[in-house]
């Protein structure tokens, strides 16, 4: 009986016939029913997913940066903390930065407890995100497989897998025979240049549709009253002594009780406008690639352990892949050819059958590489200011957790335990979160 | 990206190894000023524009270079030997008791 009631409740929940706040909160604007209804009306009744408001003179919170993290922050500020008098100001169009430039991978296969806790929380938010946003972000838990190519690398990966299990996540060690069944195209022969000795699989990991994530968060925030102001570049900060009291933009001054900065690769440039000349961050370029469309070829995300390559197949059939950052400071959204050559050679080492595949597109995004490879989600560095940065090239998977914890930090003026370790002063205090143990060499993280 | 090595002439990026920001000055090794060390080890100016940086021509003459390169356009305006820079700083301190 209890089971019957529970399934009935679930069914009701699905179709948006639950009552009160819940219903308003869910805003089941998109459903099979509404799709059908609009189809009969010639699809003329759809509302834009977000408004195009002019900036008001003042807000409770202004978020600088309309990327994934900024929009997620606005969404969770409104949803979790009831703070809706919020503006997100974006220099370009919504989703024009790294939220539309990544390789869409979501995972939490980390070693250190702080990272596992944070990224596993993110995966949990991902698991319910489409439902929560009433927007299909196409989160596909197809698994991420890290290939190991030597016994010592296998030991290292198994250690990481155990750390993941210990931290409450999931991990599975696969032998070459099991890998052959899951990913048939791989060169698993003993004569491969880098023989595969096993692989660490995280089944709850996968991919999501990156643009839909930006649009879903934007719509969710907008429907709760957040103003998303595109084509509005921040050119300075309003100050009252040390305190930040608003922003100067290309569309006028906007006052705010709290100003939150979530601008990823542009962190250095934006923070200089507030007089912060030095940060534990360097900006680097990461390139990504898409091949021509193929028939279903690889059904999980595969990473190459003898170099650095991660690859998955999009729903359109293109192989989406990337490798290392170029490795020099840059703010240009384009890279150079040595990395292209490196990435392609690694892909062919892994899948010899891809040697003659054609590349469709490649592009670059600017990464805010921190000194220990971990992010910064914190109050400060100035009074009235909040900073979210240092994502290196792992920001996409963190989008929901980053927004959730940043919103908490802004609303309550203190970090949530999940983001408490990711401070700005951890470098000076010697409590770094260095997953790879590379030290203060951003190009190697 | 081509970098013009003062010895070898213009060579492809793949011959070079990036060695990071050259705007930083290492504190005196004997210094115990933690704030100064923190600035040197962890903090960067990360400019959008001209950037002074170290490169090594590791696939060529192996010289260490100081390059001024624009981080917005990748345009290189100046390349010189890093060792010329040493003369601007104090000579390395000799550790007391060490034999030459």
List keywords for this structure.
heterodimer, A: 445 residues, alpha/beta, 8-stranded mixed beta sheet, 18 strands, 32% helix, B: 100 residues, alpha+beta, two-stranded antiparallel ribbon, globular
Description:
The complex is a heterodimer of chains A (445) and B (100). Chain A has 13 helices and 18 strands. By secondary structure, chain A is α/β, with parallel strands linked by helices. In chain A, strands 1, 2, 8, 9, 10, 11, 17 and 18 form an eight-stranded mixed β-sheet that branches. In chain A, strand 13 and strand 14 form a beta hairpin. The longest helix of chain A is centred in the last third of the chain and has 18 residues, at 395-412. With 100 residues, chain B is α+β, with helices and mostly antiparallel strands. Helix content of chain B is 14%, strand content 33%. Chain B is built from two helices and six strands. In chain B, a hairpin with a 3-residue loop joins strand 1 and strand 2 (9-12). The longest helix of chain B is centred in the middle third of the chain and has 9 residues, at 34-42. Chain B is globular and about 40 Å long. Chain B starts with a strand and ends in a 14-residue tail after the last helix. The interface between A and B is medium-sized, with 26 and 26 residues.
